[in-house]
Amino acid sequence: MLLLNEFQRKHIILALQSTYYQEWVDNYFKLFKFSREPENRNDRIKLFALQNKLAEFETKTWSALREGKQKAKALLHQAVLSNEEKKVLSGLERHIFIHKESIRISRTIADGIAWRNLKYNRLFLQTASRGWGAGAIDSNSKGYKNMLGWALGISDHFKSVILFNDITHFLRVGDLTETDGKYVVVHELKRDGKEIRNFVTLSKKRGSVSNQTKRLLELQNIALGSKIITPKGAFNERVVNVEARTHINKIKEMITKSKKDISVTETVDDCIRISVFNFKEVFEKKLDGVKYLKPFFRDIWNPTDIIIEHSSWDSFYSDERGNFLRSMIPYSIYLLTDETCIDLISGYLLIRGELNIKLFKNILNKLRNNIF
Fold first, then answer.
1. DSSP string, 40-104
2. Measured between alpha carbons, how far is residue 15 from residues 30, 50, 67 in Å?
3. How far is CA 258 from CA 22, 178, 294, 333, 339, in A?
4. Cα–Cα nearest to 348, from 8, 20, 21, 7
5. What's the DSSP call for residue 133?
6. In sequence order, what are the residues at sequence separation of 6 or more whose Cβ sits closer than 8 angstroms to the Cβ of residue 232?
7. Integer Cα distance of 5 and 15 in angstroms
8. Are residues 187 and 178 in contact, defined by beta-carbon separation less than 8 angstroms?
9. Which of 290, 261, 289 is nearest to 275 (CA)?
10. Which of 182, 180, 188, 62 is nearest to 128 (CA)?
11. Which helix (H) or strand (E) holds 18?
12. d(Cα 46, Cα 34) in Å, to the nearest integer?
């Protein structure tokens, strides 16, 4: 939560208490659950329809977001606001925040579709995410309709899954990403969708190419050969065969326990502490959230120790250019129940992890001494 300022944290709490926000979450949960069902995960026709539905949802959200911003702007331009106008402005700010987070939830669901169909290829996905965030989606626009036409044509011809890049966080290069489970092709639409470019059409292009085209070709190289081209030469992807250790089972136990105790904190390793706070239980049981939150933030480490903190609420972070935490794996692909994943995505479940650097160094020193 270090990335979130006080204003953002306050509005997360207000959103979580809002029945309007809960309605958005409930609607998205149906789509989210559908996207994770085994029979739908790689079905090109069902995923096409699902992504189009997400785009339609997002179009409505963008419309409500613009309307709220216009009303808020008109009030902010007034020299003096009455008490009633201040209340209206506060309500508008809350609704603006809710609509922004609804878009984030939608794109996190689309991220899950992309990650699964791209075989969780971190090299490709991290490289693809290095562009600016996509702006507003308009599923009624001519450009979007033309994009649908290309997507449907490619999918039908090659029997491949088509990913709509602009409704995701991670696919920031090109407009469509095509995959059949073995190959990946990135397509870029030009002239309002009348022309399509990919590595095949661009191979015939003569002369200089734009930076946008270079990025597409660089990403395509990674997709075809797991190879990155740099000024110092080409570098191939290397798989490191290291056993992954996680505390996922312990976290699952803590999540279950939080349904009864609201706030749960445990030291799961000599240098790692994990805390779980269940806002849904607080609101459903009409409890005092402030009372339960205080122990959640208690300090058990030495004040002089260096602590690295990360929380599930950090997924709410984005800057004015649409940048997000690219190193943060979307909760839509976690090996948790659908209900737990949507609670993490929406913020109703807050999980915080803390790494004590001093204790971590002590562990490394002991390992080194045992080896040498």
1. TTT-HHHHHHHHHHHHHHHHHHHHHHHHHHHHHHHHHTSSS--HHHHHHHHHHHHHHHHHHHHHH
2. 20, 26, 18
3. 20, 41, 15, 22, 14
4. 21
5. P
6. none
7. 15
8. yes
9. 261
10. 188
11. none
12. 9
Q: What's the one-letter identity of residue 319?
A: D
pLDDT tens sequence for the chain (372 residues) = 556 777 778 888 889 989 999 999 999 999 999 999 999 999 999 999 999 999 999 999 999 999 999 999 999 998 888 999 999 999 999 999 999 999 999 999 999 999 999 999 988 999 999 877 788 999 999 999 999 999 999 999 999 999 999 999 999 999 999 999 889 999 999 887 788 888 888 876 666 777 888 888 888 888 887 667 666 777 777 777 777 778 899 999 999 999 998 889 899 888 999 999 999 888 888 777 666 666 666 566 677 788 888 899 999 988 877 788 888 999 999 999 999 999 999 999 999 999 999 889 988 888 887 766
Tokens of 51: 């992504």
Which token pair is 9?
């944290």
Non-local (6+) Cβ contacts of 26 within 8 A are none
The residues spanned by each domain of the chain are: 37-236, 248-371
Q: Could you please report the per-residue DSSP string of 295-361?
A: HHT---S-TTS-EEEEEGGGGG---TT----TTS--GGGSSS-HHHHHHHHHTSEEEEEEEEHHHHH
**CA 175, 181, 184: angle at the middle one, nearest 5?**
35
For residue 230, the SS3 value is strand
Could you count the other beta carbons within 10 Å of the beta carbon of residue 369?
8
